[in-house]
Amino acid sequence: MLTAWWRDPWRKPRVLAAVTILYLLWSLLPVLVAALFSFNAGRSRTSWQGFSMRWYYGDPVRSVWHDDTLQTALVQTLRLGVVTTLVTVPLGVALAIGLHRWRGRLPNAANSMLLLSFVIPETLLAVALLLVVTNLALPFTLGTTSQVIGLVTFQLSYPAILVRARLATIGSQLEEAAMDLGASPLAAQRRVILPMLVPAIVASAVLVFADVIDDFVIVRYLSGDASTEPTSVKIYNTARAAPTPALNALATLMLVAAMLAVTLGFLLYRWLSKRTGENESIGSFAGET
Amino acid sequence: MRKAGRKPGNRLLGPILAFPGVLWLLLFFVAPLYVVLAVVFGGVDPVFRTVIPVWNPVLWSSDQPSYVLSHIVGPDGFFGPALLRTAVYVSVASVLCLVIAFPIAYYVARLSGRWKGLLLTLLIAPFWISYMMRMLAWVNLLANDGLVNRIISLGGVFPGDTEWLSGKSVVVILGLVYGYVPYMIIPLYAGLDRLPSELVEGARDLGAGRVSAFWRVTWPMSRPVVVASVLLTCLPMLGDYFTSDLLSGSPATSMVGNLINETVLTPGQTGQAGAFVLLVLIVSILPMLYYVRSVSRSEGSMA
């Protein structure tokens, strides 16, 4: 009977389904367990001692709310996320439109440079920028400014690639029609192309924000001192040194922030996509074009 | 086809819009790589042990890179094991990632209906969860009194006292797989989703079995996507030092990323860190260029 089931060409792919379910359990359960232990009443991160909000705000010294170092890390993470997104998205969108319209060898070289910045191992870029900041007389030192510069450089490819993919599907007819009807090239971009790009821009903004608040390598090398170390660095520094569940609480808060940003972004994206007739998929939120 | 230059402003708009982004990349992506060269081929202050970058290539000295190169193989080859380990860890982890990611990406790409959206969201979710949090989760689970040891000991029946978190290669490799497999599933899914399923159905209709339809139709079609996805996961692994630090913290599992991380902030050794950066860059430049070429080509066919 088993061989008959195996030979049936139209059977449902149960093996693949099982592999997928097992993978999802393996990939998500450890994180859920870590999040659960942030609500532990005791200071163990391995044995459950009852539910409490102690590590969020109850504990007067070590909770995220009362421990200044944890709070600083949280604020720094969100600050880097917002500032980097605000710089990266306009820069990347302009780059995408510019490269799309500009023909010749130079834009091809620029496009290759952009793609290289996307695949370079992050550690290499971070060390290179660290050497720049520590060896050149620049108007800024290690700290938030350096971190933002590094993050923008590493993230610039996301909006550029997503927006270029969308531009390729839009084609040039609409723009030409606008110009035939008397619009200047700039006005055609602003009034015809840009509105059609809004869903892709929203998706890339969410993607950049979610990726920046998770970043570790660049923000660690380019942080000046403890006051500019964000959550990920805090976790790295204390994960092996007998931490309390407050560390899990901090990580859980970041998780909630990322999920909130993605959910709100996706709802906005779906609403905008319906209006512009774009095929909406959650995949765009992971850089899929 | 677009008519080039129908208005004078039309031709300039592209370069003008691209200029700020291109300038940014030249200043903060290309120029820093030159600074690395200036540091690697520069000198070290004999008193303060600080870096003295040499900007003129004519004056470059090869003291620091040759120091690193001469300590890779031979009796003084204390850098060799970490480099070899990096190659082994990254290869094994990449293969494991592919073995896990391919069936999942293939299954979800072939799926339709409401389950597809839900599964896709769950598969992408780790992408938005911080890498450090995911490693922290395993640090908790693999601790001496953690869940893994307690499950193995079945509540004290067996001695579950394995020290998972000190210098175990298996743990570091599984950590790498756990950390990077989501980054492979997403591009694989995107590529497999675009494959025409009619060809596989045609092969089956013409009498190919499940296995031969896969090897003769699906696999050849998906090879470019597989190569690109493997590159996207193994390139960042080459610079990874934090997985080994968090899940082992022992020199017995250090990778080239650990060599970079340990030397870059040590006075007098920054040039060595730069030399390792160059080494990784040289190893990864061909795969990187291959990726750029394959992406540019598919963009060309789309436009």
From TrEMBL, chain A:
Transmembrane stretches, start-end: 15-39, 80-102, 114-138, 192-213, 246-269
A GO cellular component entry from the record: plasma membrane
Cellular compartment(s): Cell membrane
Pfam families reported in the protein's UniProt record: BPD_transp_1
Keywords, comma-separated and alphabetical: Cell membrane, Membrane, Transmembrane, Transmembrane helix, Transport
Family assignment from sequence similarity: Belongs to the binding-protein-dependent transport system permease family. CysTW subfamily.
Name the record gives this protein: ABC transporter permease
Taxonomic source organism: Nocardioides islandensis
